[in-house]
Structures are given as C-alpha cells and as structure tokens.
Amino acid sequence: MAAVIPLGASAAGAPAGAAPPPPAAADLAAATAAARARAWMWARRRRAAGSGLLWALSIVGLLAFWYVCTRYRLEFYMRFTNVPTPADVLQKLVEVNHSTKFITNVWISVRRILTGFGIAILLAVPLGVLIGRYRTVRDLLMPAAEILRPIPAIAWVPMSIMLWPTNEVSIVFITFLGSFFPILLNTVHGVTTLDPVLVRAARCLGASEAQLFRAVILPGVMPQIFTGLAVGIGVAWVSLIAAEMISGQFGVGYFTWEAYSLVNYAEIALGMITIGMLGLVCSGVIRVVGNLVMPWRAHSAGGNR
After folding, report:
1. Are residues 181 and 145 in contact, defined by beta-carbon separation less than 8 angstroms?
2. What is the DSSP string of 134-198?
3. HSE (CB half, 13 Å, CA atoms) of 161?
4. 123 and 235 in a common domain
5. 121 Cβ neighbours under 8 A, 6+ residues apart
6. For position 183, which CATH number holds?
7. What is the mean pLDDT of the chain?
C-alpha cells in the first residue's frame, strides 16, 4: 500500500513551499570575514598602485625640470649654463663603470655608513631607554649629551683626525656622531611619553623589570625608535659626505669633491645623484624593517591613508 503524504507537506516532512533552512552562523561569519579580507586586499593594492604612480610622477617631474633647464640653459636667479644635462650624466655613468674606481668609492661609503650607523644603533637605543626610564641616568648623561649635540659633525673633523689613528676610523666616528643623537633623543622621547597606565597595568599583573622592558616599553617606543633611525640615516649621510670631502681619500664624497677640483661637471652631478639614491635605498630599508617589526603600524588605517 503506497504511503500517503499529507496535503501541504513535502516528502522530507517540511511544509510545502517553505524556505530552506538558513546557513549556520559559523559559515556566515566565515564568508563575511573572507569577503572583508578580499576587499581589504583590493583596497591595499589600489593604494599601492596609486602610491607607485605618484612616486613615478615625482621622479619624472624632477627629471623633466632638470632636462628643460639644462637643455635651454635657462637663467632665472639660478644659472644652468654649466650644469650637465641628464644625457651627459648618463654618458658619464657608462664611462666610469669601465673601471672599478667608481664602484670602489661607492662601496667604501656604504661600508662606512653601515659601520657608523650600526654602532650608533647599538649605543643610542639602550642608552635612550635607560635615560628615559631612570631619572638618575637622565640627570647623569643628558647634560653632557645636550652640550655635544649642537656641535656640527663637520666641526668634529679636525678633532677626530687628532683622536683616531687613521682617517678611516675618524670618518666612521663622524658618521656615528651624525646618527647617534637623533636616535638617542627620539628613543628618550618615546620612553618619557609612554602611557603610564600600561606600565602600571604590567606591574599589577606581576611583571618584573626585565619583563616590563620586553613586553611594554620596547614595543611602545618602537615607532619613535624607527623615526630616529629614519632621521639619523639622513644626518649620517650628510656627515659622511662632509668628512669624505675634507679628509677622505676614497668614497662618494671624495669622488664628488675631486670632480669639482677638476671642473668635471658631469661627475659632480653623478656623485650627487649617487648620494641621493643611496640615501633613498637606506631610508627604504629602514621603512621595510619597521613594517616587519611593527606589523600593527603597517595594517593600521592611519598608516594606509
């Protein structure tokens, strides 16, 4: 005998015409999160593409201004009569790469920057944390630092030649001085302006002094530290080039000053462009490292605007 299905009911026992059951809450949440992640990724790619386009326009605009002024030898307060054109500098770049002299000068400058800047990081960051954290250390060290800080790095050149046995060490010392104080002061500022509520909360949870430094203070001052690194690398390049021009025998600064002495305008421009490109690369590396160390900064809404 065939089974009789009641009127208004489906074979599965549900009323005829009823809507299917809604998806589970977990599936809906997962789908929503995936959609938001995809939208965030697309928005980030659009911002990156727009930023790259603006970077390219900035560089192209600078090159176009340089080309027009040197091509037509314009004179409006500034004289471009003897300034080489971009084509002249490009030709000179090809010429100097026929030997290893130019590459050797670049490598020596990069080595000096890495040495002086690295020593400055190793000394300035711990000292800045200690000065910012402990009043006794601050009262002991900050007066001396504030006396030495206003002295320009170029004024240290004669003294550093007397202090150190070789020109190489004296140039590295000047590079170190140029980057030391910006890193130190930014680190001190980061520690002194850290939210005291975070420190008290860590104390209430039983954190020791070492745990406090590792889990609260260092992450809290990391943005200021990297700000100091970004400023310090620029000052380090300025100090290095000045030292190489005055007392160096190798390096990009010496290469540029030698070109000036020989009235070689294309090499002067090449040296200046090389300094700018090396500084740009160093700043970019610091920015990338900062995003890796502080991922919350790279993904924050304010950092992507």
Report:
1. yes
2. -HHHHHHHHHHHHHHTTS-GGGHHHHHHHHSSSHHHHHHHHHHHHHHHHHHHHHHHHHHTS-HHH
3. 9
4. yes
5. 179, 183, 229
6. 1.10.3720.10
7. 85
Looking at the structure of the chain, the number of domains it has is 2
153 token code pair: 């790095």
Q: Which residues sit opposite 9 in a β-bridge?
A: 15
pLDDT at 32 over 70: yes
Q: What is the DSSP letter of 207?
A: -
In the structure, what pLDDT confidence band is assigned to residue 278 with cuts at 50, 70 and 90? very high
Q: How far is 207 from 24, CA to CA, in rounded Å?
A: 42
User: How far is it, in rounded angstroms, from Cα 261 to Cα 147?
Assistant: 36
If asked whether residues 140 and 271 sit together in one domain, one would say yes
Q: Can you give the residue range of the structural domain that contains 225? A: 86-299
Q: Is the pLDDT of residue 124 over 90?
A: yes
* Residues present in the chain in total: 305
Q: Exposed, middle or buried by CB within 10 Å (0-12, 13-18, 19+), for 200?
A: exposed
Same domain (yes/no): 73, 211? no
